[in-house]
Specification:
By secondary structure, the chain is mainly alpha-helical. It has six helices and three strands, in the order αβββααααα. The model has no long low-confidence stretch (mean pLDDT about 95).
Length: about 150
Amino acid sequence: MYTVEAESETPLLWVIRDHIGLTGTKYGCGVAQCGACTVHIDGIATRSCSVPVSAVGTRAVTTIEGLSSNGEHPLQKGWIEESVPQCGYCQAGQVMTAAALLRKNRNPSGEEIIAAMRGNICRCGTYPRIKKAIEKAVGIMNETRIKS
């Protein structure tokens, strides 16, 4: 948990990056259109560039750094196995959006994956690899459940 002093209208993105020092969450457009700044607020994918820090209060904020401390989240494994990143700039937002999807739907169809990820922009066009990585993560999650 972090306590920061910032102007109430400071976007959460800048508090995360500049005040706390977690730089995985990226600035892309500043108007909540590209998805690079996606974090979870109480488990819901949220564009941090458009949320004033005053709106957060004591709610739980999870950044890409908090998804898994050791890189063992099924999405992180899927991203690596499918060699998703090209430039990598959008990837934290992509992963966080995908994590919110899988929290709500542990077995999404291809169409549901595409619909959920539609608001995240990748300049490099790695969309097919992103979809495959999410599908791979679903397989990893299902395999883990079967073994348990």
